[in-house]
Structure formats: structure tokens, C-alpha cells
Amino acid sequence: MNILKKKIAIIGLGYVGLPLILEFAKKFDVVGYDSNKKRIDELKNGIDNTKEINRKGLNNLKKINFSDNPGTLKEKDIYIITVPTPIDKNKRPNLKFLKLASKTVAKFLKKNDIVIYESTVFPGCTEEICIPILEKYSGLSFNKDFFCGYSPERVNPGDKKRKLSQITKVTSGSNTKTAKLVDDLYKSIIIAGTFRASSIAVAEAAKVIENTQRDLNIALMNELALIFRKMNINTRDVLKAANTKWNFLDFKPGLVGGHCIGVDPYYLTYKAKKKGFEPNVILSGRKINDQMGTNISSIILSEMNQRKIKIKNSQILIMGFTFKENCPDIRNTKVIDLINSLEGYGAKVSIFDPIASKDEAKDFYKVSLKKDLKFKKKFHAVIFAVEHKEIKNLSPKEIKKLITKNGFTFDVKNTFEKNLINANL
User: Fold this and answer.
1) Can 260 be counted among the known catalytic residues?
2) Annotated catalytic residue: which of 125, 130, 148, 260?
């Protein structure tokens, strides 16, 4: 079987699907489908608002078949689903996009087709939720007429060094033959190589614990930072000292948001509870990280009281709004918790973010972003919340110009040198 002759459809063209289609398009007949017409129109014009694609990649976009018409999925051999899997207000898995994508694909399935899922899910989701939908709307039988695979996405938004092809890809399939085909498929585009998991459920579990592990490590750093503040010990100094040992893990405190690390642990805890197990450690870490916005707010208000700065109507500048550095993604950003808490005490909050979308911030969070630092006022507190390179590269003089005589700077992630910072987490 010549795998290069397979026709591929990628469903979902966000942070995961877009880099994937760019790689596959180098070797395969591939179509990209997304129900968001605006997104499709942008891609057809060589525009990527995720800012993940370089100039060469943007030029290649115009050569790829993008569509918001489901009919373009007809007569394909392999379907790769990369849609978002968020959580609802109760922190339970929200699978509506995954179910809809499965239903859409099912209508075009034919014998011997393969459906590969990349969306992060709880272990067992592909076989328990997705495959029954594929069977119902296709009229075909799983592992007889069609087959499935799971290859968890490992895209790291904002990372310009470790791109898709340079990250080892975990693969799996619903039987031995399918597992090999899925593995060969990804081997054709992944320079770093692949790892064939023993089952779809194993591959699902491997993905969900990657971010759970990171979440717990950051939660530990956040708790330590809160403890050290009580002891009047500088957290940054402690971490620098501890990091001199070869096996110390270099995690930092901070706000934990985004579509993965702040979400994926809840997929695992959901399934654990379904099985009658209470995942106390994971949920404890999640609780710490979910509360950090209000914790940091309390620390900042305490700093203001110590400096005899009146909190009501005080001017505060937040530096950065996205969920992580050098990435325009504002989904599930925890900076909003900090903003809401400060405003709840009567402070006037301004927000600077050079790369986030002003329109998205307004639509999703009802906040106004500034794309430059040309303010007509000075601030009682300047809070460095996100380490965008544009923020890290500010000179001491530029920062000083923003602050009132009795004002101060606060570093959430303990990144900046001490001469720039008056207080930190």
C-alpha cells in the first residue's frame, strides 16, 4: 500500500489543524475544512490570526484547498479531527465540537476509511463517544467497514523552536493494521519520529497526563510562592538557588490558563470520578491554580496599602492579557480573574498587550486592550502578567515613565531582574 496516495481531510483549522495541514500538503492530496467561514476566508487570503505560521507558510496557504463546505470532505480516505474540546461552566468536558465533527465526517465515510482524532479527550472517549456517532450516521460497522486512530496533538502555541515536525508524535490505531498505517502516515511528516502506543486509550491517557503533570508542578510553585511571601523570602532567589541541582524541575509560579493546561486535568478527573475514584491531588492543584488570580490581586492590594496608595480609583496597568507569552491566544486566560478582582475593589485597570486581538478581547471578555504604551497618565501599579518579548525587552527608562512617584512594579512570573521590580509573587 502506497500511503502517499491517500486523500486526507483535516477538520478544524486552529492552532492544531493549521500546522498539520501545512505539513501534509507537502506530500498528500489534502483538504482543510472548518465551519467558521471567516477563518476559511482569512486562510484563503494567506492570513493566520494565530500567528503560528511564518512568511513562507503564509504564502503556501494560498495553494491549499480550504473550505467551509462539508461537501469537500467527500471521497477522502483519511479524516483527521482537530476541533477544540473545552470545559463547561461546571468544569466538565464539553464535547459538542467533537460530536459535531464526528457526525459531519460520518456522513461521508465509506468502506476502509480511517478517522483519526487529535483533540484532547479523557481516556476511552474515542471508543465510547466518537465511534458510536460514526457508526450511527454512516451506517457502517467499526473495525469492519471503517477504522479509527488517535494521535494526540502536541502543538505548543508561541513556540518558534519546537514546531509540529520537531515534536515526537504518539500514534495509535483500532487494530494492528490501522495502528501501523496511522504511524506510517505521521512518520512521513514528523522529523522527530513517532511512538506507537499500545492502544487508543493509552494514547488518550498519555496526552491528558502531559498537561496534568505541568499543572501540578506549577501549582506547587504557586503554593511555595505564597508561603515564601509569608516568610518574607524572595521566591525568585529561592528558585535560582534550587535550580543549581541537576534534577530540579525548572517550573515557575504564575497564572495558569489556556485551552490545554488549565482544561485537560478536568478531563482526567471527570473520568476518574466516573470510575469511582476521587483524584484529590489533581483537583487540589487545579484549585490552587484557579485561585491565583484573586491571590495575586490580594497581594497587590496589600502592597498598595503598605505604600499608602488609595485603592479606589487607583490606576493599575496590566502588562499582557493572553494565556501565555508570545502567543495571541486569549482562550481561558486567567489574567481576566486578576482584572476582575482588582476592579471589584474599585481600581481602574488598563491593559496592554501587543499581540492579542482587541476585537476578541472585547467580544469574549468585554475589556479594552491597548496595543502601545502611549498613555496620558501614570500608574500606581504596573503588573507584569505575561512575558511577551515586547514586554521583556522594555528598558528601565520606559518602565519608569509609566509609574507614579509612589507607584510600584509587580512581577507575576518572577522573570524580570530585581532592578526593574519592586515586588513579586
Assistant:
1) yes
2) 260
